[in-house]
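Module 6 notes. Inverse folding takes a fixed backbone as the condition and produces residue identities as the prediction. Think of it as a translation problem where the source language is geometry and the target language is the twenty amino acids. Below is one complete input and output pair. Work through it position by position during the lab.
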């Protein structure tokens, strides 16, 4: 299997011990705007999610991995979602929970590791990301990894400030023959 370890971080499956981290992240209202969350999650609901996190991507159409530093601290999550094996594509999303862990290259490394896994192991043809137009950090990150802007969904996301445009980015597997 492909090595999901980089110089700063590695990607791993969710573990039962990640419950408190997941609870903190999923109930952080600052990320609700991009995650589509409308209400808090209980630890019971999140425990049920963790109990089923082992299920295969071909069955559940998604994969969520922890981004861990080499001290084994979970610092974020990275997801493949809307997995479509017929058309060989998936959406990709990432969150680094603590601001002090951002802008240090860990997001870029995690994103690169998951892209390589998606293209090499899952044999995907393309990945896409949906990013709010005012999320400059994410736009910079995805462009840095080779994602290209392919369109704008106008007034797509409703926020407390009104509707915002969402930009769609795409990366096509350049290693295909």
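Target side of the pair, the amino acids:
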């Amino acid at each position: 299997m492909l090595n999901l370890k980089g110089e700063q971080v590695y990607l791993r499956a969710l573990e039962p011990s990640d419950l408190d981290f997941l609870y903190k992240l999923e109930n952080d209202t600052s990320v609700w705007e991009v995650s589509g969350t409308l209400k808090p999650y209980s630890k019971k609901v999140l425990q049920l999610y963790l109990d089923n996190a082992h299920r295969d991507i071909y069955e559940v159409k998604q994969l969520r991995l922890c981004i861990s530093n080499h001290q084994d601290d979970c610092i974020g999550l990275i997801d493949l979602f809307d997995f479509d094996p017929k058309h060989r594509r998936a959406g990709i999303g990432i969150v680094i929970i603590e601001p002090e862990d951002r802008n240090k290259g860990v997001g870029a490394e995690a994103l690169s590791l998951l892209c390589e896994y998606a293209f090499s192991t899952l044999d995907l043809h393309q990945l896409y990301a949906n990013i709010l137009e005012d999320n400059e950090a994410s736009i910079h990150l995805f462009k840095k990894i080779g994602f290209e802007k392919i369109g704008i969904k106008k007034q797509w996301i409703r926020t407390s400030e009104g509707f915002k445009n969402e930009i769609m980015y795409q990366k096509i597997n350049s290693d295909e023959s």
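Reference fact for the lab report: The mean pLDDT is 89.
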